[in-house]
Structure formats: structure tokens, C-alpha cells
Task: structure prediction
Amino acid sequence: MKRDWTEALWAVFFPKQCPFCGKTIPRRELCCADCGGALPWLREERELPGLDGAFIPFAYEGGPEAAVRRLKFHGCTGRARSLAPYLAGALEGERFDCIVPIPMSRKGKRRRGYNQAELLARFLSRETGIPWEPALEKVRETAEQHTLSARERRGNLKGAYRLRNGAAAAGRSILLCDDVATTGATFREAAETLRRAGASRVAAAAVCKTRRSGPEGGAA
Result:
């Protein structure tokens, strides 16, 4: 009985919202029926060069694009919790030693107030039981990836990341986490940093992947 009352109070004061359209939904549901029937599942193009696997549930369009934009640009941090089950589902039972979010620069994180990749990594960790670790740090400012061509993206990030003091990568299987993958340049640079530190396997997880390269609002 107490549990029923607790759930009822949560439903009244903290109603669960569909991550894609914002409609109030039952707490047991992941999204509303309308959005669930129109999700742009990514059936192809899930490989990313330089990675030992890519786990990406959606194409960057429709409801998932709207959810990522709300998370990234409009302070809707709760979207990270709602999107994490879809990331977990994309892993299809794969196991890793840790989840490492793509880091932001200190200046960028202060400006936004949070790192959306870190929020996704935290909630993906809760869903999967795989620990998350902020093992990487960004050591210099770079231009926004979505403003650059595919060729420019790679050079923009060269040498941008390093392993944090005290972080361990040697011999470990690591899952990088970010919100959107476009050309994969961000993931590839982060993976190379981890491999130089001895990581045995580096794969990537993202909520969405753009269907074409170029300046489409994606980051990784």
C-alpha cells in the first residue's frame, strides 16, 4: 500500500514525460504511443571508422533529434535519464569494463552548465551496471564540430584529449559515450587517446547518428 501511495505521489508531482514530445506518460512507459510508432530506428550505417563497434539506436531526425536538442541546448537534463534505456538496448548484451563520456572543455562546460555526454554515461551506467568514469579530459578549446566539414572535423580535434591523472586504460574494454555521431571524428580521436594508454578495445555509444556527413548539428 505504501508503495502504491509513493508511486501515486510521484505521478502527481513529478509526472513522467515522453522524451520525444514532452507528453505526460505512465511511469512504466519509455515514450508515448504516437512517438513510439514513429521512431527512426537506425537499421544501417552503425559502423564508425577506428572504433571496435558502434551502438546507436536512432537516426538523427524526428523525435530523437528533438530530444537530443532539448538535452543539449535547452537545459532539459532529464532527457538523459529517458534516453538511457534506448542506449542500453542498443548494446545488445555487450559488456565493457567502463563507460567513458566524451569530455567538454572547462570553458564549454561552464558555459552550458553540464556535459550532456556525462549525463548520458551516468544513466547508461545505472541501466547496465557498467561503471562510468570521467577518464578523459579536453585540454584545449576547439571549434564546434557541427560547424565544420568532414575533413575539418578530424584536424580540429587532433591532440584535444588526454587521459586524466590516475585514470586507467591499460588492458581495459572501454565504451565511449556521446549524444550524436556524425563522421565519428570525435569518437576516433578519443579512442586513439585511450589506445595509446593501452586500452584493449574501444567502442562507441550515441543516441543518434546523422545519415550524412557535414554540418547537421551532430558532434562526434
